[in-house]
């Protein structure tokens, strides 16, 4: 199926409804270390203009603002933006939050020294359009820095498990392709020189694999929405399947969960 046959606007409307279900920041806030590592890898400087795309509750924008950059976050989920504003206010960080689509960013051309996304822009259904937007808003010589789950890691497995109960829309490429060097090369071509491509592990730490499953079903919007649509029997099976995912990656031997989840940290310079 070609991209022209895919109704990306309808897909994004469903995605937005998913992210506005549950309370994603209860999950997203635990990923803050990914953003801190990403801004360090990108060598963000004070006074630089920084854009956090698909920012959610603002992890990367806040990480940049802590380093005295002029940070802006963009997301299409109003509830996540509101929590981002509350977090920034609580930490006395001057972050600007804008409601907008990663595939049509509400900012001017070549406006930012650094454009970031931590496990955010990867979920835009039209990968090429999202990549084109990242390039459009970055200054020549500026940087694009991305942290994306890989298809071979724990979260890739989780998405495949979810897909058994809610198949992804036809014609939409897997989000985890952003976690591969080959897909980045395809999306950005010679417009970006990738100067850092590093696979890292984020460790999901929960009381148990079952606690992970419960937490994601209650708070991770798209999974919360899916769980609410299942019969009692299917929900029980789904809950068990979801717990089995991190169990395979768990290195803790004390009954708790410490599950390694691979992601690709990519830093590039716009030519």
Q: What structural keywords apply?
A:
single chain; 271 residues; alpha/beta; globular; methyltransferase; Class I SAM-dependent methyltransferase; Methyltransf_11
Architecture overview:
- About 40% of the residues lie in helices and about 25% in strands.
- With about 270 residues, it is α/β, with parallel strands linked by helices.
- The chain has a seven-stranded mixed beta sheet with strand order 3-2-1-4-5-7-6, sandwiched between helices.
- Strand 1, helix 4 (about 60-65) and strand 2 (about 70-75) form a beta-alpha-beta unit.
- The longest helix is centred in the C-terminal third of the chain and has 16 residues, at about 230-245.
State the helicity in percent bands. Answer: 40-55%
Largest sheet, in brief, is: 7 strands, mixed
**Secondary structure: number of strands:** 7
Structural class: alpha/beta
Protein name: Class I SAM-dependent methyltransferase
InterPro entries: Methyltransf_11, SAM-dependent_MTases_sf
Pfam families: Methyltransf_11 (PF08241)
Keywords: Methyltransferase, Transferase
């Amino acid at each position: 199926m070609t991209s022209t046959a895919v109704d990306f606007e309808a897909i994004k409307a469903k995605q937005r409804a998913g992210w506005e279900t549950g309370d994603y920041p209860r999950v997203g806030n635990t990923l803050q270390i990914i953003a801190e590592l990403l801004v360090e890898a990108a060598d963000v400087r004070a006074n630089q203009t920084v854009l956090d795309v698909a920012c959610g509750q603002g992890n990367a924008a806040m990480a940049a603002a802590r380093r005295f950059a002029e940070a802006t976050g963009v997301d299409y989920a109003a509830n996540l933006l509101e929590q981002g504003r509350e977090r920034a206010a609580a930490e006395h960080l001057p972050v600007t939050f804008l409601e907008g689509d990663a595939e049509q960013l509400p900012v001017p051309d070549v406006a930012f020294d650094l454009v970031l996304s931590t496990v955010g822009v990867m979920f835009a259904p039209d990968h090429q359009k999202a990549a084109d937007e990242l390039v459009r808003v970055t200054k020549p010589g500026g940087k694009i820095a991305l942290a994306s789950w890989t298809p071979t890691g724990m979260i890739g497995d989780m998405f495949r498990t979810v897909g058994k109960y809610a198949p992804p829309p036809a014609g939409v490429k897997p989000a985890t392709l952003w976690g591969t060097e080959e897909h980045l090369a395809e999306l950005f071509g010679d417009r970006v020189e990738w100067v850092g491509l590093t696979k890292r592990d984020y460790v999901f730490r929960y009381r148990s694999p079952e606690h992970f499953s419960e937490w994601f079903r209650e708070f991770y919007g798209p999974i919360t929405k899916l769980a609410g649509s299942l019969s009692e029997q299917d929900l029980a099976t789904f809950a068990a399947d979801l717990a089995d995912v991190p169990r395979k990656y768990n290195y803790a031997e004390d009954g708790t969960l410490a599950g390694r989840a691979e992601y690709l940290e990519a830093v590039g310079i716009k030519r």
